[in-house]
Amino acid sequence: MRLDRLFKRTLFYLLVAIIILFAVFPFYYAIITSFKSGTAIFSIDYLPKQVSLANYVSVLTRGNFAWNLVNSLIVSAAVVGISLLLGVTAAYALSRVRFRGRPALLLIILSVSMFPQIAVLAGLFELILGLGIYNTLISLIFSYMIFTLPFTVWVLTTFMRDLPIEIEEAAIVDGASPWVIISRVFLPMMWPALVTTGLLAFIAAWNEFLFALTFVSNDAKRTVPVAIALLSGTTDFETPWGLIMAASVIVTVPLIVLVLIFQRKIISGLTAGAVKG
Question: Is 216 in the same domain as 242?
Fold first, then answer.
């Protein structure tokens, strides 16, 4: 029995190690490559033999990459804020207010996110041109809401539906309005779900490429995924792998930091409602 248990535990940890290696190794190799320069980039090394910050200095000082980082931060933060605001209010209506067609409406909201981006690109491009927001950060914020808002509404509706109705009834008896119930009663209880949906919306907006490439043509207003794709070398035939790796590390590190900071809230938000007592 002990040997069987030891074998299962060893097999489990071996599987975990393989998954971690598969997930972490590409980023680790990108970090190593970002410290190389010249022909050393093409040599295969699993441990850093030299540490040079030249690629990082170059990518941050050349062109508009620093502004591209700021643009991505502004767009992602705005998308998260608007998604959570609209998502919480919509979740309250869909989970607490009884009206005809509520299940169908929730299904329609979720189905919007099922369409591939390329399928709505042409129509969305015409809409953005008609609104006069082409080549602005507002166009990105507006377009990103298509795939962040449905997910946010769905998750927050599921989470809010599991909150005790007695708390809401007590607040109504005390004369609280719907907005007071949402902001003072439900929001403090929804932090795990808010952190989870907000972080996933931030990651989606931070990494989005197709809309950012289509709706913005000014280099100073682009976001970092497009800026990385448009990085060029000193000659027409040079591929700046060192700069691309350095830029990729700079873009990825903030996401990793956010996940590490809020990992407990994320786990609580993803598992909320999975088990009911």
Answer: yes
What is the three-state SS of 31-74?
HHHHCCCHHHHHCCCCCCCCCCCHHHHHHHHCCCHHHHHHHHHH
Using only C-alpha atoms, the chain has a radius of gyration, in whole angstroms, of 23
Which is more confident, 62 or 266? Answer: 62
- pLDDT score for 69: 92
Q: State the CB neighbour count (10 A cutoff) for residue 204.
A: 17
Total-model pTM:
0.82
Q: What's the confidence (pLDDT) of residue 270? A: 59
Query: How many folded domains does the chain comprise?
Result: 2
Could you tell me the two tokens for 141? 């914020």
Handedness of CA 27, 31, 37, 43 (dihedral sign): negative
Longest dimension (CA), the chain: 73
Note whether 61 and 146 are same-domain residues. yes
As given in the structure block, the two tokens for residue 258 are 């956010």
Helices (H) and strands (E) in the chain, counts: 13, 0
CA quadruple 268, 273, 274, 277: dihedral positive or negative? positive
Tokens of residue 192, six digits: 């795990």
Length of the chain: 277
**Residue span of the structural domain in which 63 resides:** 56-271
Is 177 within 8 Å of 183 (Cβ atoms)?
Answer: no
Mean of pLDDT over the chain: 83
In this structure, is the dihedral angle defined by the CA atoms of residues 155, 159, 162 and 168, taken in order, positive or negative? negative
Query: Please, what is the Cα angle at 129 between 76 and 197, to 5 degrees?
Result: 20
Q: Fill in the amino acid letter for 193.
A: A
